[in-house]
Every structure is written in structure tokens, then in C-alpha cells.
Amino acid sequence: MTLESVFIFIIVIFSVIIHEVCHGYTAYFFGDQTAKYQGRLTLNPLKHIDIFGSILLPLLLIITNAGIFLGWAKPVPYNPYNLRNRAVAEPIIAFSGPLSNFFLAFIFAMVARIMIAFNFGSPEFLKVIFIIVFTNIILAVFNLIPIPPLDGSRIITAFLPSLKYYFDKIEWAGMFIVLFFVLFFGQYVSIIASSVSQFFLGM
Fold first, then answer.
1. How many domains does one find in the chain?
2. Which of 17, 77, 100, 147 is surrounded by the fewest CB atoms within 10 Å?
3. Tell me: the pLDDT tens digits for 134-182?
4. How many CB atoms lie within 10 A of CB 120?
5. Taking Cα atoms as reference points, which of 131, 144, 91, 102 lies closest to residue 18?
6. In angstroms, how far is CA 125 from the centroid of its own chain?
7. What is the DSSP code string of the chain?
8. Per-residue pLDDT tens for 167-180?
9. Are 182 and 70 a contacting pair, CB within 8 Å?
10. What's the longest Cα–Cα distance across the chain?
11. pTM for the model
């Protein structure tokens, strides 16, 4: 494994952790303290790492040069019955994770734009920033896919509640469906993420 692959792996880990912590803090904002009581409102990786989603899958995709960087942390729990204005809170909680990745990508893209505009910083450092931007965009786009248990499924059921019955029926197989999607359609997620990354970077 190259040094670049190791760096990508580290970015994936911390990006998915920030993603999950944002879910927890958003639920906390709406009145649920489940994540706080379980010690999940922290950036400590040991509290969030999922063996398969945080380590094995990202490593497999990197080692095999799959062209897509994906991963997830253990979902931060929340109790929907504790939420204020549940109908509004649940889709916002679901969207807060992908939004955190878009936000990280935007901040680092602005740094890259400034560096390029003022012609400072090494090409190697710019490459690091580009990787951070692309990785976070791809995590955001991937999580917006409406397949349970991804965030997209929770967002879409907030607007189309009739789908919840069907999503609940297939959630037990959700990870298998996600892996199938990654194997056969992952390149399209990568293409979309590349286009969004180029837009953020002004390229």
C-alpha cells in the first residue's frame, strides 16, 4: 500500500466519524440525548469505528484500485420519540451527515482556490487537499442514495412516507444491496463526485 493510499484511508476514517458525530449533535439539538449518554458525541475513533465499514471495505477498495473511496462508521443512535417536531427533525438529522461532508469539501476547496490564486503551496500539498475534497464529496453523494440504511432513504421517506414500509422490509439486507450497488454502479457515484469536486474547486 502506498503512502497516498494510507492517507486516503485516514481521510475516509475521520470523514465518516465527523459525518456520524453531526448526526448525533443534530439529534441533540432537537432534544434527544441518546448519543450523548452513549458517549458518541466525540471525535474519538474508538467510539465510532465499524470493523467492516470503517476498515475492511475502505482498505479493499483502495488496495484493488476500485476508483471509489467509501466507508461508514457505526451509526450514531437517536430516539425519535425524544425529538421536538419529529417530522422536521428526522430528515434534518439524516441530511446533517452528508451536509458535514459537503461542508468539509467546500472549506478545503476554498483553501485550494486561494493557494492557486496566490500561487503558494507545493503541488504535493494541493494534491492532498484535492483528495480531501473528492473523498468528502463522494461520501456525501454515496450517503444520499435512497437505499436503507443510507441517509438518503431516511430523507426520501420524510417526503414520501409510503416508502417507509418497503424500506423497513429490506433494511435487513441493506448492506448487501449497498455492496451490490457499489460493485455495479459505483463508477457513476465516482463520476458525479468528480463533477461536484471540480465545481467546488473551480476547475
1. 1
2. 77
3. 989 999 999 999 998 899 999 999 888 888 888 888 888 877 888 788 7
4. 9
5. 102
6. 23
7. --HHHHHHHHHHHHHHHHHHHHHHHHHHHTT--HHHHTT-SS--GGGT--IIIIIIHHHHHHHTT-S-----PPPPP--GGG-TTHHHHHHHHHHHHHHHHHHHHHHHHHHHHHHHHTT-S-HHHHHHHHHHHHHHHHHHHHHTSSSTTSHHHHHHHHH-GGGHHHHHHHGGGHHHHHHHHHHHHHHHHHHHHHHHHHHHHT-
8. 888 888 877 888 78
9. yes
10. 54
11. 0.89
Distance CA 54, CA 12 (A): 8
Q: Residue 162: how many CB atoms within 10 A of its CB?
A: 7
Of 20, 90, 124, 171, the active-site residue reads: 20
Q: Is 4 a catalytic residue?
A: no
Between the CA atoms of 74, 76, 80 and 85, what dihedral angle is there, to the nearest 10 degrees?
Answer: -140
The three cell numbers of residue 94 are 439524516
